[in-house]
From TrEMBL, chains A, B:
Taxonomic lineage of the native organism: Bacteria, Bacillati, Actinomycetota, Actinomycetes, Kitasatosporales
Keywords annotated in UniProt: DNA-binding, Transcription, Transcription regulation
Claim: GTP-binding is one of the keywords in the record: no
Protein name as annotated: TetR family transcriptional regulator
InterPro entries: Homeodomain-like_sf, HTH-type_TetR-like_transc_reg, HTH_TetR, Tet_transcr_reg_TetR-rel_C_sf, TetR_C
Annotated DNA-binding residue span(s): 40-59
GO-annotated molecular function: DNA-binding transcription factor activity; transcription cis-regulatory region binding
Record has DNA-binding as a keyword: yes
Amino acid sequence: MSEMTDVATARRSRITPEREAELYAAVLDLLREVGYDALTMDAVAARTRSSKATLYRQWGGKAELVVKAMRHSKPGRIADVDTGSLRGDLHTLVTLEDDCTMERNSSLMRALAMAVHSNPDLMRAFKELLVEPEMDEFKRVMQRAIDRGEVRADCPAREYIVHMLVGAFATRTLIDDLPPTQEFLRSYIDAVVLPALGVPTT
Amino acid sequence: MSEMTDVATARRSRITPEREAELYAAVLDLLREVGYDALTMDAVAARTRSSKATLYRQWGGKAELVVKAMRHSKPGRIADVDTGSLRGDLHTLVTLEDDCTMERNSSLMRALAMAVHSNPDLMRAFKELLVEPEMDEFKRVMQRAIDRGEVRADCPAREYIVHMLVGAFATRTLIDDLPPTQEFLRSYIDAVVLPALGVPTT
């Protein structure tokens, strides 16, 4: 666990999980309404009837608050999925979010992914609190597949599992003018991800 | 060729290719400086010493002008590449742009890809003038591979060739904090794209 996470967990323990969930929901609403750059701690404080001092004490800053709110919206942890096969694990992972949630999160992630390029502190929080934990969980999914003998330990595609999945998610709207859905992602997993990893899909 | 392209070609024929290249370069400079939403036809007119009436007559509007400028910056056409093997074609395609140009274009494409979601006319121009022609050219590359017997006609990954390549390009910075380079894209082609298509990489 990173130092950033430790510090934030210690800070956060002063508020209840319910209050925390309420705060995160308000932050995501604001993010949808005005975007990252125009979102202010003043607006979060007003919307959630908190003091700015509390927000800064609990989260350190806007970047960390926004990224934690995004992470909190993710329904279920990749680490809890263990179906006994890589295909089973990957198909289950894409059903953790229903299509409606996925479409809402997809536009939020797009906005954040864009904003990181002009906000170094957001980039750092995004990588440390969202990208890296997700990469680590995918590595565990992949390691289990290797341990089961499904994927060769020297398979070059294993390094690119997150690029493949995030790439499919990110390009669906742009290329096909359609939201990423569970059905699309399952089809992509069977057509691209598993064959690239040398895993039979039937 | 689409109707939009026909009309624009007819309009554009009134200016010289040199003047056109100069205009497109100025549009991309402005796009880098202020972003799509803040870019105005007034600013383009001032920067290029043209009249706004000329710009509108030649390009119809901001969306079409910006997308044409992006397309013009692409060095070389996919359709001209025909090496005799799919691996050869794909490796050649990623060397059409040197790493420096690729990094510059990558941040421009990111900005545009973001702006399309709040600008329906930009989305239309982007799809009609950039995405669809590129998809068509990749389809031709893929059809030749099928005709040569390299890829099976019913290979499910053939529908996703552009998602794979654009996805790799788009996720490289976000996931690895590194710009997409020719070396990365060649490695991704060998690790993911060719195996997904059932093509041996050696």
